[in-house]
Specification:
Elements (H helix, E strand, L loop, with lengths): L4 E8 L5 E9 L5 E10 L2 H13 L3 H6 L1 H25 L6 E12 L4 E5 L2 H8 L2 E4 L3 H5 L9 H14 L6 E7 L2 E6 L9 H4 L1 E7 L2 H10 L9 H5 L4 H11 L24 H24 L4 E6 L6 H11 L5 E5 L10 H14 L7 H4 L9 E3 L3
Parallel strand pairs: 1-4, 4-6, 7-10, 10-11
Antiparallel strand pairs: 1-2, 2-3, 4-5, 6-12, 7-8, 8-9
């Protein structure tokens, strides 16, 4: 075991509802301990402004066209992250070594190898009087990768804690994150860690919450389908569902990163609120269940689910229903293991910051399609 660092991870996800903040201690390898997690909700005015700007950025050219607006929202977002970081450290009497700052993804295009996160690392360092590691994705992109997903190496650490406790009877453990975009990691046991670059597999697999959230926000005064209640009252349009599956054509091999703008919900236009939510939820469940089957590779497999989508009871029930004929597959929410699934991403960026400091790989050829394992992140000290 190497030196233990204490890092604060900050994450603003595609739901655009707030900041997840986590402090962990870790050696950047096999050892990690969760110290504290806290969620900081955005005020409606800021959330609406962030959403408005996010909706304008549809191409890489838009990043230039709306540069002034982007700079303004970036500063405000950084100030909110600084407030969150300072509050968490002060109120828990913590001494952290540095901050892992993901920022907020404004635009991601895997084909053009562009991933734009807003968040000023220099300003955050100044306001928090701490070293900050940010811009995690650029190195991976420069090494031929997609820039996402970056959490798989932390998913692997989680899975091995599970293995050590009670689940060593499974051939494989997958970690499924249902955020705005869904991604999955097929993890590797520590004793096989020497072959990690060849064995650790992960990918974005399709929509998570993004299509459902977008539909609900556009057609009601709700921000999301709470527990899947709207979908549960609706009826899926099978014709629309099958046509959408054919048009999206999300099938193995899963080898590209995705953005919420990759998914268009206009095909359910004309349905009422509940039927649209049901149809989009069934579409999402079909895509996710297919990916679970693929990554389980016909083995005795446990899939642990984190991210906001695990709270959508209708969605989870539909995924389980589609997997019911596969007796070798088990699906459980991460809470069943005593882990809070709301903060996996913020914990991951604290862990990634430690690995970045140690120049350890953040991504691997079979997680982001980079040419070789590569580290990433930029360290700034501006205080």
């Amino acid at each position: 075991m190497g030196k233990i660092y204490t890092a604060l991870g900050l994450m603003s996800g595609t739901s655009m509802d707030g900041i997840d903040a986590s402090v962990i201690s870790s050696d950047g390898d096999k050892e990690y301990l969760i110290i504290v997690d806290k969620y900081y909700k955005y005020e409606d005015k800021f959330r609406d402004e962030l959403s408005r700007i996010r909706s304008k950025i549809l191409t890489s050219e838009d990043l230039i066209s709306f540069e002034t607006e982007i700079s303004s929202i970036e500063r405000e977002l950084t100030l909110l992250h600084a407030n969150a970081a300072n509050d968490l450290v002060k109120n828990n009497d913590l001494n952290i070594d540095f901050i892992g700052f993901h920022g907020h993804t404004l635009f991601h295009d895997s084909k053009k190898k562009i991933s734009k996160q807003i968040g000023d690392g220099n300003l955050l360092s100044q306001l928090c009087k701490k070293d900050v590691i940010f811009n995690f994705r650029q190195s991976d992109i420069e090494n031929g990768g997609e820039g996402a997903p970056l959490s798989p190496i932390f998913h692997n650490a989680i899975a091995n804690k599970i293995l050590n406790k009670e689940f060593n009877n499974f051939d494989t453990i997958n970690v499924l994150n249902i955020g705005g975009i869904a991604n999955i990691t097929r993890t590797v046991q520590w004793e096989k860690f020497y072959n990690l670059p060849d064995m650790l597999q992960a990918s974005d697999i399709g929509p998570g919450n993004c299509m459902i959230d977008s539909w609900v926000r556009n057609n009601s005064n709700h921000m999301f389908d709470n527990k899947g209640e709207l979908a549960s009252y609706g009826k899926t349009d099978s014709l629309m569902l099958n046509q959408a599956l054919e048009n999206l054509h999300i099938l193995p091999p899963y080898n590209k990163s995705l953005d919420i703008n990759d998914f268009d919900i206009s095909f359910v236009r004309g349905l009422n609120l509940e039927n649209g939510a049901s149809t989009l939820s069934d579409l999402t469940a079909e895509i996710i269940s297919n990916a679970i089957i693929h990554f389980s590779n016909s083995q005795n497999s446990l899939t642990v689910v984190c991210g906001g989508g695990r709270k959508n009871i209708y969605l989870m029930n539909m995924i389980n229903k589609k997997l019911c004929n596969f007796n070798n597959l088990k699906l459980i929410p991460i809470e069943n293991l005593g882990i809070d699934g709301d903060f996996i991403e913020s914990q991951a960026f604290a862990y990634l910051a430690i690995r970045s400091l140690l120049n350890l790989p953040l991504s691997y050829p079979k997680t982001t399609r980079c040419i070789q394992p590569c580290s990433g992140g930029i360290l700034v000290s501006n205080y």
